[in-house]
Sequence to fold (145 residues):
Amino acid sequence: MDLIEKYPKATIVLQMPEKTEESDWKNIRDWYILSRHQFILCLGHIDDIQKAVELNIPCFYGYPIETFASLRAFMRLGVSYVRLGPPLVFQLDKVMSVLGESGPKIRGIANIAYMDRLPHENGISGAWIRPEDLDKYDPYFYSIE
Fold:
């Protein structure tokens, strides 16, 4: 709650890797309301994603999504955002066609490297985001943390 009061215009991402108890969801819902809906959940369990979607709280899976089958599954679950890992991060045009206009938005984390270091035709040479490459991601990513 201190962060919500200190940064009233910021979007707060609450990372919750452990499965959330049913009793905690009332508090989470209350915090979401008190934050004036400037709150996103980064979740590690499918059950928690389903509960957040049921409560209309924006959420995403905290681990990188690496296949189109997984991407479609998270879309069906109703996540608000996705975090991509290789090889999807190298197929952003195709990812965008799968997501469509109304699908989840892509969130990135600039300081995490995900395995691949091969050069690719699109100029993106790794699954991490270098400051000098931010412009290459602008058309695709909703936010880069």
